[in-house]
Structures are given as structure tokens and as C-alpha cells.
Amino acid sequence: MTSLPASGRCTAASTYRHSPAWSILEYVAHITVRRRVTRVRVGHLPAERADFVAAEEPLEIRVDGRPLTVTMRTPGHDVELAAGFLVSEGVVHDAADIRTARHCPGSDGPDSGNVVDVFLADHVAPPSPGIERNFTTTSSCGVCGKTSIDAVATESHFGVDDDPLRLSPEALAGFPDVLRSAQTAFDRTGGLHAAALFDGETGAMLVIREDIGRHNAVDKVVGWAVLNGRLPLHGAVLLVSGRAGFELAQKAVMAGIPLLAAVSAPSSLAVELAEAAGLTLVGFLRGDSMVAYSRPDRLETVDSIVAAPGDDPRDLVAERPRRP
């Protein structure tokens, strides 16, 4: 595993706004690691074979040479991850806010290191001390390293409450199949989360990113958007392959995304944030069924639901699927 260099500015680093373009084979090879494993089945002899696991390494994010945080992530699209993280923390809102990003080189080449240094434009204020992380965050938790609970609730630069997005449940129900078919690294490892952006009007998938941490996958997607001048993401749908916790809902709001959909369940805090911000939050998006936890009016057919006498209309948005 590549180690982190000492604090200070990177030397002899590659500088660019966007992540390098890889072929599918190069991409999968970059984010997976080949290992010898022993397959054990009841009633059969153990068998050794080669297998692939998802790569996990630390990434230090610096701003103007100053260390800001370290997160455990799957290598790849690191500049996007850093840019998306800064969007989620309210530091940047537009491509013009980032002067450039410098990827410290590793032993395998200029883009293989584990440090990204983001240089802000002159008009952008540096991150406040309140968002600094005291310790390395794990790939399953992005907000647990905050220096205070109050720092979790970041005010969004963009509003989603008045976003006019409307789409049919039929269109939304088709997005998970598109996402799954594009998860090239998941096919090999079975161990990566995915996040994808869809155009709510055309249904086209705009970008997909995979990572061992679901919050990192979302940061990479948002980072792609800000580096390409696409924020705010009005009319877009963010789809995640797992559950939707508070942090993912906040990342959607911070990027101006009006609809967050997850194939699994949301958390109570995610629902509360979605209701307060006007974000449409959809969970249990499987097959032809889904549960809308907030702002169901953006799903075209929900307006026609009529409550039977004695029923609570809030229970009629959708029937919660049984857990496996």
C-alpha cells in the first residue's frame, strides 16, 4: 500500500482538473487487488483459487498545502473525490472556485499517490477549522470524524425545494438496472458501493462512480459535476446502491440535487433533512416498487392517490417492501 508523504506541498506532482481517462480494463485493474483465497463449501474439500477484492487505501485531502482530512477510499477519481468533499462541506460551489488540483505522485506513477492538494481560487475563503477531521475516517463513515456535531449540518448554497423536477415512477424504477449494469468493478469484487447521476428529463445516466465507501462514491459524482461546471444539479436524480443516511442526503442538497433514491432504507435523520430541505427521498427502489419518504409530488402519479376512509394518506405513498 502506498504511504502518505509528510505534510507540506507536493513536489513533482501532476496538475489537472479532471481525473485521467481509463479504459474499462484499466479502471477495474486500478481499483481491485488480486489475492489467493480458499473456497470452503460444506461437504466439499477446500479449494484454492485466485479472487479479486476491492482496493482500500487512505487519501489525504489538502487545501492550499494544508492537510484537511484523511479518508479511506478505493483509489481512482481522487481529484473528483476531493472536489466533491469540498462541495459537501460548503467550501466550493463552482468550477471557478478551484484554481487547480495537484495529485502527489506515488511509486506507480503520477496519478497513483494517496494525497490530493486542492488550490482554491483567490476569491474563495479557506475551510473553517470547524470542518477539520481529527482522525482518519473509515470507508463506512464520513461524518464521524467531525470535530463537533454542529459542524455536520452545513448550510447549502443551492435550494432544492422549488426544483420543478417531475418524473414517472416507471422511469425511476428503471434506473437501478442501468446502475447495476455499469458496475464493472462490483462484478469482479462484490464489494463496492455505487452512485450515479441521472438526467431527470431524459433518463440518461450522466456519470457513475464506485467506491468501498458510499459517501466517497457520492463525493466522486458530485466532484465530477463541479469540475465540469454542472452545479447546481437541477433536475437531476442521485441513485445510490445501498442505504441513504443523513450524510448522503446532505451531499445531495449541497449539490442542488432534488431527488435522492436508494435501493435500501433511509435513516430517520435523512428523512428529517429531506423534509426540511424539500428533497425528494425515495428508498427501497426495487423492481416496480419504491417508498417516497418526502416530497412525493415529484413522482408524477402520486398526486392521484386517494385515501380511503380511516386511512392515513401518509401510509399510501407506497407499501414498504419486506426485508429479505
Topology:
Layout: E1 14-16, H1 24-31, E2 32-39, E3 47-54, E4 57-63, E5 66-73, H2 78-88, E6 98-103, E7 115-120, H3 169-181, H4 184-189, E8 193-199, E9 205-211, H5 214-227, E10 236-240, H6 246-254, E11 259-262, H7 268-277, E12 280-286, E13 289-294
Shape: globular
CATH architecture of the domain at 169-316: 3-Layer(aba) Sandwich
What's the mean pLDDT score? 82
Major sheet summary line: 6 strands, mixed
Low-confidence stretches: 1-8, 11-18, 147-152
The N- to C-terminal Cα distance equals 37 Å
Percent of residues in helices comes to 10-25%
Number of strands: 13
Strand content: 25-35%
Strand order of the largest sheet: 9-8-10-11-12-13
Indicate the radius of gyration in whole angstroms. Answer: 20 Å
The number of helical runs is: 7
Strand-and-helix sequence, N→C? EHEEEEHEEHHEEHEHEHEE
As for the CATH topology of the domain at 169-316, it is Cytidine Deaminase, domain 2
Assign the structural class, choosing from mainly alpha, mainly beta, alpha/beta, alpha+beta, or little secondary structure.
Answer: alpha+beta
What is the CATH C level class of the domain at 169-316, in words? Answer: Alpha Beta
* CATH homologous superfamily placement of the domain at 169-316: Cytidine Deaminase, domain 2
